[in-house]
Amino acid sequence: MESQHFAEQDFSLESSSPGSTSDSDRQNGERSHASVKKEIQDLRQKLASRKKIELPSGRVDKVKGELIQCLRTNEKRPLDCWQEVEAFRQAVGELEKAFVDKIVQ
């Protein structure tokens, strides 16, 4: 008789309604709609607060355009554009240095 009483208790625990979330359900990886919605909102706020990607400076764009133009006009002689390549490297180097200085400080 006593074993039948325990079996009825086990059965009543297993047959709880599927809409209710208990602690054991949350331990199994299931989460409520509200907790998932809150987590999504938190992630959106973190994403919005991140720094935006900065576009290259006007000097880099100008030098890049000059390099591209030179390479197009000297299609069969790209080594003639060594001055433009050097100017582009210098502009990018300055941009990299500014970025590193900003990060270090």
Task: Considering the chains and any ligands shown, give keywords for the structure.
105 residues; mainly alpha; 5 helices; elongated; disordered N terminus
Gap between N and C termini: 76 Å
Helix content: over 70%
Q: How would a crystallographer describe the biggest sheet?
A: none
**H/E element order:** HHHHH
Task: Estimate the global geometry from the Cα principal axes.
Answer: elongated
Low-confidence stretches: 1-22
What's the tally of helices? 5
What is the CA-atom radius of gyration, in angstroms? 32 Å
**Class of secondary structure makeup:** mainly alpha
- Count of DSSP E strands? 0
- Strand percentage: under 5%
Integer average pLDDT: 76
How do you describe this structure in short?
The chain is mostly helical. The protein contains 5 helices and no strands.
Could you characterize what this model shows?
The chain is mostly helical. The protein has a domain of 47 residues. 70% of the residues lie in helices and 0% in strands. The chain is built from five helices and no strands. Helix 4 runs antiparallel to helix 5. The termini are far apart.
Which SSEs are present, and which pair or pack?
Elements (H helix, E strand, L loop, with lengths): L1 H13 L8 H5 L5 H17 L8 H16 L8 H23 L1
Helix pairs in contact: 4-5
